[in-house]
Amino acid sequence: MRNKIIQSLKLYINNPKLFILSMMSRTCNLWSDKAYLKIVYYLRFGRRLNLNDPKSYTEKLNWLKIHNIHPEYSKFVDKAAVKNFVAERLNSQDNIIKTIGVWNSFDEIDFCALPEQFVLKTTNGGGNAGVVICTNKSSIDYASARKKLRLVPSKIYKTSREYVYYNVPPRIIAEEFIEAPNNELSDYKFFCFDGEPKFLFVGSERQIEGEDVKFDFFDTDFNYISIMNGHAHAKKRPERPKNFEEMLEITRKLSAGFKHVRVDLYNVDGKIYFGELTFFHHAGFVPITPYEWDLKFGEFLNIK
């Protein structure tokens, strides 16, 4: 414990911004939305957040948090409820990963009834938080799984002001395990504006032990865009899927009627699966470099 405290102190001394961000997170309830977003944005980007006349994509995302409130969007980020919406929009269950069960607590789960491989998630989580991937039920660490799947109100609203997570009920969902060739499951995240995809990134190398996920950006003709956004590029550049046009058509159907949403899909051996909908990519708090691409992406987002 003492060594952990000493390491934390050294980290904060070497990076005062990190200390301030930590304090902001701990005291987030004390700040108004506008003040909180401005301070965190400045600490993350080193420049002021312009909420009066936002130009860049990340600025406009934070503008939307304050000026474009849609409480009903909570059902679209609920990992269980959103599947009904997807089935209706696509008029099919074919692109939806099979749900094995949904529970209100970890203790309700009958692990004996689960298949040998499965994925458990909290319905109100984001990213990899609250996700347990089981490829061999006999070796599952129940104590670790219980800890990861602890059901609490989403912290995403408090720490990033993403209002869509505010009313999502915390539950646990079990889904079918999707096995990709060579254990290389990539996801394709399409940035859609007024129902039209404009660019995407491919998240790859998630399954490589000790490696962080890699991000590679492309336009909708699958031309490579050389930008950084929180993660390094893959060692091997992802290739355009053969059924890429079908993926684009799915994103158009799912994003219709939304000013902006990111539609996440998987493509496994030519089979397309829905992942999730995201309204605030990286909470609008991760720099896009070079900066001119932050501005260019901002041109797609009409906030009028």
What does this structure look like?
With 304 residues, the protein is α+β, with helices and mostly antiparallel strands. The chain has two domains: 46-69 and 181-304, D-amino Acid Aminotransferase, Chain A, domain 1 (2-Layer Sandwich), CATH 3.30.470; 96-179, Dna Ligase, domain 1. It has helices spanning 2-14, 16-26, 33-45, 57-67, 74-77, 82-90, 142-148, 156-160, 244-255, 291-300, and strands at 99-103, 118-122, 131-134, 172-176, 187-193, 196-204, 214-219, 224-225, 260-268, 271-278. A six-stranded antiparallel sheet has the order 8-7-6-5-9-10. A four-stranded antiparallel sheet has the order 1-4-2-3, with no helix packed on it. Helix 1 (2-14) crosses helix 2 and helix 4 crosses helix 10 (291-300). The chain is globular, with a radius of gyration of 20 Å.
> Could you tell me the mean pLDDT?
90
Quaternary class: single chain
Largest beta-sheet characterization:
6 strands, antiparallel
What CATH architecture label of the largest domain applies?
A: 2-Layer Sandwich
- Classified by CATH, the class of the largest domain is Alpha Beta
Per the CATH scheme, the topology name of the largest domain is: D-amino Acid Aminotransferase, Chain A, domain 1
Q: Assess the beta-strand content as a share of residues.
A: 15-25%
